């Protein structure tokens, strides 16, 4: 399948390409677009795909969570920390006024 590189932006009802876009299209379409002004032909033949190497051996995942090492630590729930307000006023209950 031919590949075309657009040299300028082109848009229509069913397509939109900007300069530098490389698009695979049918030979008939590529002939129409690749006029040297709007687009140029990048390749005319199908790309060669490299052969895949033999897959490596599968490995198993190991657990490094704290629950596996220390069950007591995993049972403790983290406590929520109280944050001060952005104004720096700290946490106040309802009805408390700032000094």
Proportion of residues in β-strands? 15-25%
- What is the count of β-strands? 5
The strand line-up of the biggest sheet is 4-1-5
What's the order of the H and E elements? EEEEHEHH
Explain what this protein looks like in three dimensions.
The structure is a single chain. The protein is α+β, with helices and mostly antiparallel strands. The chain has a domain at 3-42. The strands form 2 sheets. It has a 3-stranded antiparallel beta sheet with strand order 4-1-5, covered by helices on one side. It has 3 helices and 5 strands; from the N terminus they run E-E-E-E-H-E-H-H.
Sum this structure up briefly.
By secondary structure, the protein is of the alpha+beta class.
List the main descriptive attributes of the protein structure presented here:
3 helices; alpha+beta; single chain; 99 residues
Summarize the helices and strands and which ones pair or pack.
Blueprint lengths: L2 E4 L3 E2 L4 E2 L4 E3 L2 H7 L5 E5 L22 H4 L1 H5 L24
